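Bumping my old thread because nobody answered last time. Still need a sequence for this structure:
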C-alpha cells in the first residue's frame, strides 16, 4: 500500500512514496536539526496513512492535537491522568482500535517520560487477541530515550528507555511499528536507534552527525557535506519501505496545522513608554501570586550524594596510610584491585540487556556495585572504566588479564575508538584461547548493538586499519588473524547465536 510523501528532487515531477505495509513490518527513524521539517514530515505521514492504519502519537509539545478535528483522533491530555490510567488507556485503545494523540504539553521532562512509558507499556502488554497493526509515532524521541543521563531521575530514565526499547526491538511481533524523530542521532540511545531499517535524514550541521547520517545511508564520507545544504522539508530517504538507494525527497503539503507555529515577523513601532504603560509593567504583584512563584525548597540529597560524602570522609583517613605503604605492596594491591573491578563488571554484564545500555548508565551501576562490595566511590573514573569495560566484554578471565600477552592486546586496542575496543579485544581473546572466530551476534553484543550489519562493519573497519585479516573457507566459516599479535582464531560460523 504506497502512500505519497512528496516529490523526488533528483527527478522533478516524480512522486516519492512509502510502502505502508512494509513500514508496518519494519521501523522508521527521522533525523534533522531543529527547523529542518521533522514534525511536518511526521504530520504528512500520519495524514496520508490515517485512513489505512490505527495510530498512536507521543506528542511532547501538543503539536498534533489538530489531527483530531480532521481525522477523528482521540486526544488524551496526560496531565489529567495517572500513570496507571494511561497504561490502561494504552491497552484499551488497541482493543477498540482508536487512533490516539497523547499530549504531554505542560508536563516537566520527568513526568513526560513516566507517562509516555506507561502508555507505551499499555500498548505493548495488550492481550494477543488485540495485536492489530498500530503506527506509533514519537516526536522528539531523544527526550524519551536519551543516550546519557540528564536532570531526570535514573528510575524515570530507565522506565522510559525500557518502553522505547520494547517499541523498537520487540514491538513488531505485537503489531507496533515505531516511527521516531530526533534532532541528533548522538542524543538518542543506541539500542533504540539501531533497530530502525528505514531512514529519512534532514538538514544537519555538526560533522559527527553528518558522518553518522552518511554511514547509515551507505554514502561516502565526502558526500556527508550535502546534509548541510538541505532545505526545510528536504530529506534523504533509504530503506525497504522507501528506496533501495539514497533518494532525495521534498515533503508535500499537509491538511492540518500545528498549534505551535514558527517565528514570524510582525510590524512593531517602538516608542518611549508612557506613564500608564510604565505603571502597568512595573506594578507590584499580588501577595498570593508572589507566594505561588516562590521557589520550592531544594530536595534532600539522594542516596548517591550521601554515599559520596561518606566516601570522602573515609578517604581523608585512608590516604595518609596508603602513602606510607611499600611500593611492592602497592603494586600487588593494584593488581588485586583490577581483578576485583573486572569481577564486578563481569557480574554486571551477566544481565543479557546490560551490553546494550549506554556506557554512562553502566558506569553508574558499576559505582553502586563497587560501594556494595566495599571498594569505595572512586574505584575507577569514567575513562578507566571504559577501558576495563572493553576488557570485560572480551570475556577474558580477570586473573589472565594480568598476563603480558593480554597487555599487548590492550596496548593495541588503546589506539582505537572506545566503542571499537571491545570488538578487537573479543577477537584477541578468542585467538589467544584458540577458540572459533566470534559470530556476528557476539561481535554486535560487544559493540553494544543489536544490528548484525553494524557488527560486520566493525570487522571491515579493523581490517582497513591493518589490524587483522579476515578469511573464509569453503563452508563459509570465518577466521581472523590479528596482525600485530600474530594470533589466529579457529574457524567459526558468522551466523551462530550468542552462547548463553
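Sorry it took so long. Here it is:
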Amino acid at each position: 500500500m504506497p502512500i505519497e510523501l512528496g516529490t523526488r528532487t533528483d527527478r522533478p515531477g516524480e512522486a516519492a512514496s512509502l510502502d505502508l505495509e512494509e513500514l508496518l513490518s519494519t521501523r522508521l527513524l527521522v533525523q534533522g536539526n531543529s527547523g529542518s521539517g521533522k514534525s511536518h514530515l511526521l504530520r504528512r505521514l500520519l495524514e496520508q496513512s490515517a485512513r489505512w492504519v490505527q495510530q498512536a502519537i507521543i506528542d511532547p509539545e501538543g503539536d498534533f492535537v489538530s489531527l483530531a478535528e480532521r481525522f477523528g483522533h482521540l486526544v488524551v491530555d496526560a496531565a489529567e491522568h495517572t500513570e496507571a490510567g494511561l497504561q490502561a488507556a494504552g491497552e484499551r485503545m488497541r482493543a477498540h482500535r482508536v487512533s490516539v494523540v497523547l499530549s504531554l504539553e505542560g508536563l516537566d521532562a520527568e513526568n513526560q517520560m513516566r507517562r509516555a512509558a506507561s502508555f507505551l507499556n499499555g500498548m505493548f502488554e495488550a492481550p494477543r487477541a488485540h495485536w492489530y497493526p498500530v503506527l506509533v509515532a514519537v516526536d522528539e524521541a531523544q527526550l524519551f530515550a536519551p543516550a546519557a543521563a540528564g536532570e531526570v531521575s535514573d528510575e524515570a530514565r530507565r522506565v522510559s528507555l525500557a518502553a522505547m526499547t520494547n517499541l523498537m526491538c520487540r514491538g513488531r511481533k505485537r503489531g507496533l511499528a515505531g516511527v521516531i524523530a530526533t534532532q541528533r542521532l548522538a542524543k538518542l540511545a543506541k539500542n533504540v536507534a539501531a533497530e530502525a531499517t528505514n531512514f529519512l535524514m534532514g538538514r544537519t550541521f555538526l560533522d559527527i552527525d553528518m558522518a553518522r547520517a552518511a554511514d547509515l545511508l551507505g554514502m561516502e564520507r565526502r558526500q556527508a557535506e550535502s546534509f548541510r545544504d538541505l532545505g526545510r522539508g528536504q530529506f534523504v530517504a533509504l530503506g525497504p519501505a522507501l528506496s533501495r538507494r539514497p533518494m532525495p525527497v521534498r515533503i508535500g503539503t499537509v491538511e492540518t496545522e500545528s498549534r505551535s507555529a514558527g517565528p514570524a515577523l510582525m510590524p512593531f513601532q517602538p516608542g518611549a513608554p508612557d506613564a500608564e504603560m510604565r505603571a502597568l509593567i512595573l506594578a507590584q504583584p499580588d501577595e498570593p501570586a508572589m507566594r505561588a512563584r516562590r521557589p520550592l525548597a531544594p530536595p534532600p540529597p539522594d542516596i548517591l550524594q550521601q554515599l559520596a560524602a561518606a566516601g570522602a570522609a573515609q578517604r581523608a583517613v585512608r590516604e595518609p596510610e596508603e602513602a606510607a605503604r611499600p611500593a611492592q605492596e602497592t603494586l600487588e594491591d593494584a593488581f588485586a584491585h583490577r581483578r576485583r573491578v573486572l569481577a564486578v563488571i563481569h557480574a554486571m554484564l551477566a544481565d543479557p540487556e546490560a551490553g546494550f545500555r549506554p556506557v554512562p548508565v553502566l558506569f553508574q551501576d558499576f559505582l553502586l556495585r563497587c560501594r556494595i562490595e566495599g571498594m569505595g566511590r572512586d574505584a575507577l573514573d569514567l575513562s578507566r572504566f571504559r577501558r576495563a569495560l572493553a576488557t570485560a566484554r572480551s570475556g577474558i578471565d580477570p586473573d589472565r588479564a594480568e598476563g603480558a600477552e593480554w597487555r599487548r592486546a590492550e596496548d593495541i586496542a588503546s589506539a582505537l575508538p572506545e566503542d571499537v575496543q571491545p570488538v578487537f579485544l573479543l577477537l584477541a581473546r578468542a585467538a589467544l584461547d584458540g577458540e572459533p572466530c566470534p559470530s556476528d551476534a557476539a561481535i554486535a553484543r560487544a559493540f553494544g548493538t543489536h544490528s548484525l550489519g553494524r557488527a560486520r562493519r566493525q570487522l571491515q573497519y579493523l581490517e582497513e586499519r591493518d589490524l587483522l585479516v579476515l578469511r573464509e573457507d569453503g563452508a563459509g566459516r570465518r577466521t581472523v588473524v590479528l596482525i600485530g599479535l600474530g594470533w589466529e582464531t579457529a574457524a567459526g560460523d558468522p551466523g551462530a547465536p550468542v552462547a548463553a
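The longest strand covers residues 243-251. Let me know if any region looks off to you.
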